[in-house]
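Good day; I would like, with your permission, to put a structural problem before you. A protein sequence and the structure tokens that stand for its backbone fold form the material at issue. I would ask you to consider whether the tokens describe a fold that such a sequence might reasonably adopt. I set the record out below, with my sincere thanks for your time.
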Amino acid sequence: MPANHDQNKSFHPIHDYTPMQPEDEGKAYGIEHYVQQLHETADKLLNDRANRGDVKMLSVAMRELRYCFKVFAQFRERRQVTVFGSARLPPSDPSYGQCVEFSKRMAEAGFMVITGGGNGIMEAGHVGAGRENSIGLNILLPFEQHPNPVIKDDPKLMHLRYFFTRKLLFVKECDAVALFPGGFGTLDEGFEVLTLVQTGKSHLFPIVMVDEPGSDFWHHFQRFTKDVLLKRRLISESDLHLFKVTNSTDEAVAEIVNFYRVYHSMRYVKGDLVLRLNRALSATTLTRIRAEFTDIIKSGTFEATSALPEETGEAKLADLPRLKFRFDRHKLGRLRQLVDVINQD
């Protein structure tokens, strides 16, 4: 008989951990509830006699995330764009200059710019935005990665040991993503962002892939997406609307700024998707939406409403009008198209 036979026999996953179900999303538990869950989870690690390395990883990740949440909390009133791109591109590269101009324009539009805090495109993003509008998420590597001069020694520069916590923050804290040319890391970040939005594991936001005029770096990606992924039915045609490829800085800026022209944010309440809007939709636009987007609702129709009782914890959003419907969560690409129609109102 194996030495751990009794231990395995007494293990019941459903009693040890029950994942959150979709119907739980609208429940407004207080912070104390979740802190208590953290305490209980930590105690279970002792009972499990967990591996030291595993516990150390959890401890480091939790401490880093707590600190980063504290830093980002100071800027909750500001929208933020995450900029990805190669650390190897020098200031003489056209993409570097384009990123400087893009980030400058985004800062002028009221956005802060989040980058990895290093050189190349990361530095360009901070040069364009300026120190006061820059946030850095530096990764601690076996070979030292120095922060760029713009963000160095700034309290908005955070240092993280793990890529997974860093990537979580890049996406969780942003309202848009801009990708400039880069290597494996940039492609990894781009694919992860697309996956999170496509599967509904992230809030919806604009994703722009920016090539310098005359260049085709991201156009190769776009062709691969259409000629290979779509042609082989590995993605849906509506998924192509989750991102935009452009050679124009003006177009990249407009794609992000216009996304929040009427649309504000989203959340789920008791199985319904609630879109918060900066102003109420016209009757004409609501009629159009009800006619053109029946394929993305599971039942019922699109309903113009005010804040729901479950949203009482978000006082600053209380006065915003809403669009509520029972969303088919397989249709995130079509949801992105819906936002475009809303913003044309």
User: Anything to note?
Assistant: Confidence is low (pLDDT under 50) at residues 1-9.
